[in-house]
Amino acid sequence: MFIASAIERIGDHATNLAELVIYVVKGGDVRHLSREQLEREALSPPAA
Question: What is the Cα–Cα distance from 27 to 7, expressed in whole angstroms?
Answer without folding.
Answer: 29
